[in-house]
Amino acid sequence: MEKILILGGTHFQVPVIQYSKEQGYRVITCDYLPDNPGHLLSDEYYNVSTTDKEAVLDLARGLKVDGVLAFASDPAAPTAAYVAEKLGLPGNSFNDVNLFSEKHKWRNFLKENGFKTPVSKDYYSLDELMSDEWCYPVMVKPVDSSGSKGVTKVSGREALADAFSHALSYSRSRHVIVEEYIERAGPQIGGDGFFGTDRLDFVCFGDQVVDEGINPYVPCGMKFPSIIPESIQKKISDEIERAIRLSGLKNLSFNLEVMLDERGDVFLMEIGPRNGGNCIPEVIYNYTGVNLPALAVEASLGHPFSLSPRDNSHFYAYYALHSRKDGIYRDYVLRDTFPGILNGEYVFLKDGDNVGAFMGSNQTIGILLLEFELRSDMDLFFQHPEEFVSIIVE
Question: Between the CA atoms of 323, 326, 331 and 332, what dihedral angle is there, to the nearest 10 degrees?
């Protein structure tokens, strides 16, 4: 029986845990939250932080695992690569994965290889930042956080100090990047894909949705398929393939964030070296039939896995339940007027839990998996979600 070590046991790791169990693999999970739902499904659980590379390495070595997997978790991806490299398991090198995990390294890589990328610079101290001059607006971000946590758009120098402090509070390495603000044309493009040994085997693009009423930089949904034309999708796919090929990464499951400007230039804002959170792989499976959790598991064990996307005339999305205010969570209600089908739900909070305003993905109440017969119905829902979903917060 092959053993797989899965880093994390949240709702987002449940699909890879379930698939691994169905295949007869012995599943070991670890993180520092023993109450996470995935640990109830695994064969063994260990209270070891997924960001503690040496502790996870000791665990994997002692258990003699055959594969290690970070799925839907940015912080765990470098750890999985580190352990795989040290133990000679299937995977990519720590340095190559880190290139895609830390924003300042990613921006430098893009610039050095002739990709379109915002002007940027990284900082460890506010004094260093304040000694530079920037053309505003700029974006201030932690180099190593996920889910848009710690991100601020800054319109003038007087707001830099607060934005820097905010970003620093979300950075594990206490490291911040400032970058030129790019005026986007059309939707922010997201999705997941897989790059095999030498080419892009699969990618699925969706259109990101935000709640402008609380924070325009935190995704609260994604709609599939994307509205961008096939010619633009091909252009983006070519850029993704070129970037991953240049990096040397192989058999890579990835999550993406892409922007287009008014000239049609492609900005690869992020290629995360792991599948996306917020149940994006499950939405893509509902839409295309491609089982990204299965692909990630088999790649981590060095097994081949075939891809057979299907045509689909329906439309699919996830919606992140969230609150626009701090308070006590009571419940959510999906009204009878909802114009689609509820394919699944993950609610992370229970009645009486504290909830914060949706300033980052860490304040997500839950995820709804949605299906629509008509794009117009999907667009209607996302234009006015409050008319179809009530969040009860006191």
Answer: -10
